[in-house]
Amino acid sequence: MPGQVTLSDVAREAGVSLATASRALNGSANRTVGEDLRRRVHAAAARLRYSPDGIAQAMARGRTTSLGLVVHDIADPYFAAIAAGVAAAADEAGLMLTLASTGRRPGREVEIVTQLERQRARAVILAGGASGDTESDGAVRAALDSFRGVGGAVSVVGEDGLGSNSVVLANREGAADLARALRGLGYRRFAVLGGAGGHTALADRRGGFVDALAGLGCAVPDDLLLDAAPTRDGGHAAMSRLLETGAAGEVEAVFAVTDVMAAGALAAARAAGVRVGEDLGVAGFDGIEALQDVVPGLTTVRLPLARIGAEATRLALRPAAAEPELVPLAGEVVLGASTPGPPGR
Amino acid sequence: MPGQVTLSDVAREAGVSLATASRALNGSANRTVGEDLRRRVHAAAARLRYSPDGIAQAMARGRTTSLGLVVHDIADPYFAAIAAGVAAAADEAGLMLTLASTGRRPGREVEIVTQLERQRARAVILAGGASGDTESDGAVRAALDSFRGVGGAVSVVGEDGLGSNSVVLANREGAADLARALRGLGYRRFAVLGGAGGHTALADRRGGFVDALAGLGCAVPDDLLLDAAPTRDGGHAAMSRLLETGAAGEVEAVFAVTDVMAAGALAAARAAGVRVGEDLGVAGFDGIEALQDVVPGLTTVRLPLARIGAEATRLALRPAAAEPELVPLAGEVVLGASTPGPPGR
DNA sequence: TTGTAGGCGTTATCAG
DNA sequence: CTGATAACGCCTACAA
């Protein structure tokens, strides 16, 4: 059974010292091993089916080859798309990706970062951004500082860098652009699903949307700002609630702060006999691929998801010492059949 | 700067031996450390902000705490959903998840498994199943055997266990059920997108669908069995091709072997002015959540994706020695608005 | 260029 | 119950 084969075995088999075998197999800094010996060692390694022990190497070198990625829910297409970008970049950099999900449980990020610190991950990417809760964010910040303390690098995706390298998403601006676009289509009475008390990113979207609208002279009344969990079910529930209240009758379009929520809203509307597009406009945010290909095509603000992951990875791999770098990334409004314009004429 | 703090430091600070400190902090098998000393050690550890080095522990213990998961593309909702199930189960088992994507590049699975073997991952889950290519599958099998050689456990999701524990999906049966359901709706002329030469799982779906149809007296002509990549774009391209040929006119319903492909097909149909549902039925396979909430709701065979991940994890954590275990898991036909029944009356 | 030897941070074996 | 002291598998000055 192979695997139990150690470098010493290879060295012995090749008739060289442990050091030489090590240098021949993995090129150390000063690359210099006699071509003949080098050959002998490789042959011996192959013959014995030697497989270097990554753990031992990590320990000897004092650093791992793994990159930690923290998301809220990998099944959420938003995070899945970002993860794909990170995975590709990590692969290219020769790093293994360690994925951890918070399941949106508060406090989990800290636990995960701590765990990653224990495992001496080389870097960690926080894809979820800040939570908006001062105390909680402070704890995360502390955990990240501690992680840096052991030589780890950090990057976060979100508005607030939490003192780290970060990919700054134009959530406010994107939502404002969307608001203007919808207003341009003729919509005047809006409702917003989600963003209250949630993560900063979502709060920013809602804020950007509402503020821009106010600037255009059509404020959104408080009772049409519905709280909702950032999930498909959250969107569904909020839309259902909206439809049950009398207020719904006057609403011409609904903005769900994420596409996934918008999908839930779509289902709720359909279940209530409301035709999305004809009777009511619905827009989301994120630009999830899968939701673009159906009828009605969802109006949204498309974010360069894979790019976000790639940039976050690049930032996470920068020399730990350097000053935090911020990379701004914007979204683009995509008008779909879900918002053809207001119903009455 | 914390992190550089080692167990020896803690031991010294607490005035005990290294061994005792180790036993006090992490309970070894024979748990017995005087309550007073135990307290002293913990206090010292806290004071010094000691953080155990996972790498060193792994090396000393001779085993890691990480579980490898190999998927083709984490951005694909099918794999994302399975990954979510695995992530939850891994978390519960106290393991870290190492995610690797093949990007559908042939040969990548072997490289990844080898890499995972180097890192001494405790177990690995192959979510992609067999490729259908004998040579390639043989290489994967060999890599897995080697992995087991170093004490690793394995489980694979798919029809063919590749000699390992496996979650056996009823792809054939599910597709056959779907065929019967569509036939029951009145559809008689079908086209199939994908499954040719692809992974075994997809080939089985196509085979199950076509065979069942043949049994019902309506064989699918070869020119209506279109080859397609198992992606959104693959589905789009295949549908476009179908629509361009004259044969399309006679087709009443299209079966894409994955929901993601079906989404692409939907887009292609719409682009060509074909109304899905009214003019043409479209069905997929997988039961991707996001695709269920739109109009027309996609007819599909819903797989218990999260469950698949959970089971695969359970299998991967079984004692490595045991005989391979097979867990069959079936899908359920879900009829949506995308296949209301054939057009002409 | 090649070999020797010390060390990385823990766990585990075996005496006290 | 506690404490020395070997491993663990590999890297790397330092020496030859």
Write structural notes for this entry.
2 copies of one chain form a homodimer. With 345 residues, chain A is α/β, with parallel strands linked by helices. Chain A folds into 3 domains: 7-61, Orthogonal Bundle (434 Repressor (Amino-terminal Domain)); 66-169 and 306-329, Rossmann fold; 171-303, Response regulator (Rossmann fold, 3-Layer(aba) Sandwich), CATH 3.40.50.2300. Helix content of chain A is 43%, strand content 14%. In chain A, the strands form 3 sheets. Chain A has a 6-stranded parallel β-sheet with strand order 2-1-3-4-5-11, with helices on both faces. Chain A has a 4-stranded parallel β-sheet with strand order 7-6-8-9, sandwiched between helices. In chain A, strands 10-12 form a two-stranded antiparallel sheet. In chain A, helix 9 (200-215) links the parallel strand 6 (190-193) and strand 7. In chain A, helix 5 packs across helix 12 (305-316) and helix 6 runs parallel beside helix 7 (134-149). The first copy, chain A, is elongated. The model of chain A has no long low-confidence stretch (mean pLDDT 92). Strand 2 (96-101) of chain A pairs antiparallel with strand 2 (96-101) of chain B. The structure holds a DNA duplex (16 and 16 nucleotides). Chains A, B: This is LacI family transcriptional regulator. Chains A, B: Keywords: DNA-binding, Transcription, Transcription regulation.
